[in-house]
Amino acid sequence: MKGLFISFEGIDGSGKSTQIDLLAKYLIKEKKPIVKTEEPGGTKGSNEIRKILLRENNFHWSVETETLLFMAARVDHVEKVIKPAIKDNKIVLCDRFMDSTIVYQGMRSAKAKKLSLNLFELIAINPDITFLIDMDPKIALNRALNRATEEDRFENYGINFQNELRKNFLDIANKQRERIKVIDGDQSPENIAAQIIESVNNLIP
Ligand code: ADP
Ligand code: TYD
User: Fold this and answer.
1) Is 184 in the pocket of ligand 1 (CB under 6 A)?
2) Which terminus of the chain has a lower count of CB atoms within 10 Å, N or C?
């Protein structure tokens, strides 16, 4: 068994957490060692940064500063959780990774995008496979807004912003077809999970 790094991307409410849970359940049943984690988060330090970034009424950062905070959280997470787990031959399931920064921050500022890409070179790790759960933002937004969490800073931008996010995610997927697998999110959770499991099984010896 070799370590594997799997990330999940998509607009808010697209079903990433649901799919991570279903894949985790399957892999545990198959007796595969997994680590389930998320960004921003996964370590004590990254969770502190997450609180700063995602709490309500927190709009005073420039998009470049925001990018630096997301990247700082990522460095801590990669060094303390992701790299050690892969070295230990585990399967890492990560809710969002670098593509989210390229899309959410990069979309708003070319400088922020460049900044994140420069820092990402130093992190030197890319997912083996990324599942982009693609779906109509109207459906995803309704799902996300129904959840009523306090972390709604990034969800409050509305439907136009979500449409832009979707387009930008699909653009990255088109450019990196080998790594990013686009999955239609507007199906039953079980159908989506079956497609994800099939792809993952192709990567596990
Ligand atoms: P994300 O992690 O991408 O924000 P979640 O997995 O939390 O998305 O899903 C958002 C909401 O939509 C949750 O209430 C979840 O139960 C529901 N949901 C997830 N996947 C599906 C699906 N395939 N069909 C219908 N509802 C779904
Ligand atoms: P997440 O907890 O995955 O939210 P959701 O379950 O609604 O998809 O992510 C929190 C928010 O942080 C989400 O709106 C996307 C945003 N985000 C960025 O803007 N940049 C990033 O680099 C990451 C990882 C997340």
Assistant:
1) no
2) C
User: Binning pLDDT at 50, 70 and 90, where does residue 55 land?
Assistant: confident
Query: Which domain range does residue 59 map to?
Result: 4-203
* 155: phi then psi, degrees, rounded to nearest 5: -95, -15
> What's the structural domain count of the chain?
1
Pocket test for ligand 2, best of 43, 66, 100 (most atoms within 8 A of CB): 100
- Residue 163 sits in a domain whose CATH number is 3.40.50.300
Question: pLDDT digits over 168-186, tens only?
Answer: 999 999 999 999 999 999 9
Residue 181 DSSP one-character state: E
Work out the burial of residue 179: count CB atoms within 10 Å of its CB; fewer than 13 is exposed, 13-18 middle, 19 or more buried. middle
Grouping H, G, I as helix, E, B as strand and the rest as coil, residue 47 is helix
- Tell how far the Cα of 1 is from the centroid of ligand 2, in angstroms: 31
Exposed (0-12), middle (13-18) or buried (19+): which is 178, by Cβ within 10 Å? exposed
Q: Residue 180: which of 3, 2, 9, 5 has the closest Cα?
A: 9
Distance CA 53, CA 191 (A): 34
